[in-house]
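Readers outside the structure-tokenisation community will struggle with the description of the input data as it stands. I therefore recommend that a typical entry be quoted early in the introduction. An entry of this sort, consisting of the sequence and the corresponding backbone structure tokens, reads as follows:
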Amino acid sequence: MATTIPTREELVRKASDLVPLLRKHASWAEENRRLHDETIEALADAGVFRLRRPKHFGGYEVDNRTLVDVGTELGQGCGSTSWVASVYWIPTWMTCQFPDEVQDEVFATPDVRVCGTLSPSGMAAPVDGGVVVNGKWGFISGAHHAHWQEIIAILVPPDGEPYPIMALVPMSDLLVVDDWDTSGLRATGSVSTVAKDLFVPQERVLPLPAVLAGQGVSKRNAGSPVYSAPLLPAAAAASVGTIVGMARGARELFLKRLPDRKITYTGYESQREAPITHHQVAEATMKIDEAEFHAQRLATLVDTKSAEGTEWKLEERARSRADVGAVVRLAKEAIDILATASGGSSIYKGIPIQRINRDIQAVNLHALMHPNTNIELYGRVLCGLEPNTLYI
């Protein structure tokens, strides 16, 4: 399927144009714990769901720097919206590791949306022609608007050791449990899904260790640099733009309120005149700049190694996780500075900084993004030890 591929600048501009709409629906989305249908339609119109779709299916197959830049723009409008978009990008990329006939089925849907998880919270048993899966998966962001889900389960073969598998299933085959009622990232609709005696045909099942190592089975995508990276660095690069965008959005909204705010019980009629405000804005800005450095370094590493086709070193994989942790830590610190400087009036729901602050707290607690977990893993590898996780 021939398609015209927009430039990075065009895609970033389209994402930037969505910011007013995303902010308009942010409160509704948080209250209803899912994205607004108009938001989903606008993301589709802007090509956001085509960024990791293969070119031969009418997709854009963009590099990771583009994902970072687009995610950053979306994140400035609504952190939850950008989070869901980035979550769709990752399982869509994972779909491109499956056999080509599986992709034919999935990508037959225009602007198809694939959600998923990396948690092996299901069990699978081999049967003729495939596997039968039982399990429950939590934190499935974007499930309400998804067509397919990528699930992880532990396969127990009749002989040999159990191992994790990755499978693709239609959302219609899963039970959706509306249990997402949280303090942060509320609009992501990250509900749980359940499989009960679900048969999955063999062609829609892959061993997870192979995907983690960048060993997909697609013949059509074999020559594409975009789909050649190991899973974790690719997923990390797809995620970090959202975080930078949330911090940028917090700064923009803080500066917008600044001229009309005084510091109560002081002589400052305008907060803008206070030296403490100068320090706060500058410190937050420097942290945002540092976060963007780590995001761009990560994206550049994945893009460069994918284009060159060179083997990934263990230290490079670990540093990818460390860069994610650094982006989250720095963005969280910057947002905390700005939230602290926003005064008592900022606790009202109509002031977005309180939502952004709660959202970054939720991101910080994500198992694969937590700064402490990621920096420990990097340090462990730097000290010459083997990683204590498959997720690297």
Remarks:
- The chain has three domains: 8-106, 114-207, 229-382.
- The CA atoms of residues 288 and 331 lie 6 Å apart.
- The mean pLDDT is 96.
- The chain has twelve helices and eight strands.
